[in-house]
Amino acid sequence: MEVRTTACPLDCPDGCTLEVKVEGGKLVSIDGGNANPLTAGFICSKVRDFGGHVYGRARLSHPAVRTGPKGSGEFRRASWDEALDLVAKELTRVRDGSGGEGILPLSYGGSNGKLTQDGHDALLFGRLGATVLERTVCAVATGAAAEGLYGKMAGVAFDDYEHAKCVVLWGANPSSTGIHFVPLMKRAQAAGAKLVVVDPRRIPLAKKADLHVPIRPGTDLVLALALMRYAFENDLADRDFLREHTTGWETLEARAAEWTVERAAELCGLEPSMIETFARLYAESSPSVVRCGWGLERNRNGGSAAAAVLGLPAVLGHFGVRGGGYTMSNSSIWGLDSAAAIGAPPETTRRLNMNRTGRALLEYRDPPIELAFVYNHNPLATLPNQELVRKGLEREDLFTVVFEQVMTDTARYADVLLPATTFLEHEDLGTAYGGYALQDVHPVIDRVGEARSNAEVFAELCERVGVARPEDARNEREHRERLLAGTPWSDGLRSALDEGGAAEPPYGNRPVQFADVFPNTPDSKVHLVPEDLDEASAKGMYVYLEDPGSETFPLALLSPSNSRTISSTLGQLHDHEEPLFMHPADAAQRGLTDGELVRVWNTLGEVLCPVSATEELRPGVVALAKGLWSHNTRNGRTANALAPDTVSDVGGSACFNDARVQVARA
């Protein structure tokens, strides 16, 4: 038995160090390590049980070529040479025929490591002139807001929340998506912090909050603007801070002016007194900190909502003290640009917002999409307008390559299947976006079957289609060195990684905003109404767009994260039937009883599943977990089948929470 150290790069804010027990090259168990102080030696059950993913019956262990109809999952075994020759032949055919834009690389988060995406894949697809995929399912609207206002300034460290007197948790559920925040929040409350949770659901931390604000989906913008107006008109705003450290605050004040507490309360479905209590508590507590999540961006107002929430600490002047300010994502602080480091060409071809993949597969012309290359991604489980995506994948004239670890719903539509390594089987570099750890990810077990890494496969395809160059990085290790060389702190980061497997920025892992770190904007000020975002947004920033509900489809459908999957990763391990959660009053109105089969539908599709009545949702809101696979519902459809492919006002993010549905007995 041997214990080997690595790190988890999966889509989670925490970035755990891992201690992996290995015997004979095989995984025995996974536990937490201590190189990342935030994660403190404990890990989530998802990664603790990762062996089921590595060695489960769904794991792909060899290349395969389709033999049955699209979607049948019927394949024959192939050698790597046969499979790569076939893929290279098709890539070349499309490029030399209709042009490179007929090739669509479909990738998303995957392992979230810095070496498994935008590396050799960017070289291949960039040099082929493929259609450019805009990865806009998550964090784009919030990222645009954070970039526009603060230049993605480093956020308040979770460890410093114990210094706060008021913590606002807005659009995040750490109990499912970042468990190390939970004990730190308990410590903060024990030290006297008040907790406010803004969420349509009574999530676990809402049950322990001093104030739970059960907002209607899509009205976060209105609530944040009402808090600002209240602060401005009651002399709670820090005008000295605004004059010295911000731009655009007068415009923001004017745009917030229409949102009285009473008007906002009516739209948000809240009591006016609750908004006033929230406003006073946040304004009059110091330090106060906002933990801004990603749930609030998943609607038509997502970008403006995120900007308004992130603007609150500037309006109130809640900076310059430990435990004061905001936290969102810290992934960008390292200055790591994989595509630039590896020498990928500029993106000059047509662009596709990935939320509209279904439309592209079915409607693109001049040229049409003839080849889809899916990797680090399970489109059928993660993209909106699921039925349109499915119809696109069903095209017999679409050559589809799926490079994947397990047999996903999407993989069943492949023409060629390529088996990929997991993060336990290859080199990578991981960044914790909630904390401040940069960590090496090492291969700690033998590869399963014939699985290969992204770098190996895409570098080989570059050779086979004739776009490889002598100066290209040969492997992940060379890519890592080039990536680190491009950072502002390259020598220090490299030394720390080589010595201990983890590194932190030079200002440490607990920076104080407006003391140790400042906005990364050109003038080092907070741009409360960024000009480029204001011009690009649908009707200008901070302008509320009306609810898409109707008498026919009155219920707001949420698709929240769950504690069993990471986006859709690990979904093959959970074959239970997932229920639709609904408030008892909504169930009674429709004559529904707990556990009976219901039909959830709108104009885009329908889902058949059991119903579960719960008071942990506000009336008018139903929920079906995100990341489900076809086996989790009676008819093989998920919440994505009901989600529109419309995009947010800023950034073009997905609008899953704008799904409006009706529910009836099946």
What key attributes describe this structure?
Rossmann fold; six-stranded mixed β-sheet; alpha/beta; 666 residues; 22 helices; Dimethylsulfoxide Reductase, domain 2
Q: Give the number of helices.
A: 22
Structural class: alpha/beta
Counted beta strands: 27
Helix content: 25-40%
Mean pLDDT, all residues: 96
Rg from Cα = 24 Å
CATH top level assignment of the largest domain: Alpha Beta
**Poorly predicted regions:** none
Write out the strand line-up for the largest beta sheet, numbering strands in chain order. 5-4-17-16-15-6
What's the CATH topology label of the largest domain?
Dimethylsulfoxide Reductase, domain 2
Q: What can be said about the biggest beta sheet? A: 6 strands, mixed
From the spread of the alpha carbons, the general shape counts as globular
Write up what this structure looks like.
There is one protein chain. The longest helix has 17 residues, at 80-96. The protein folds into 3 domains: 64-130 and 347-412 and 448-485, Rossmann fold; 141-331 and 511-536, Dimethylsulfoxide Reductase, domain 2 (3-Layer(aba) Sandwich), CATH 3.40.228.10; 555-665, Beta Barrel (Barwin-like endoglucanases), CATH 2.40.40.20. It is α/β, with parallel strands linked by helices. The radius of gyration is 24 Å and the shape is globular. A 6-stranded mixed beta sheet has the order 5-4-17-16-15-6, covered by helices on one side. The chain has a 6-stranded mixed β-barrel with strand order 22-26-23-25-24-27. The model has no long low-confidence stretch (mean pLDDT 96). The termini are far apart.
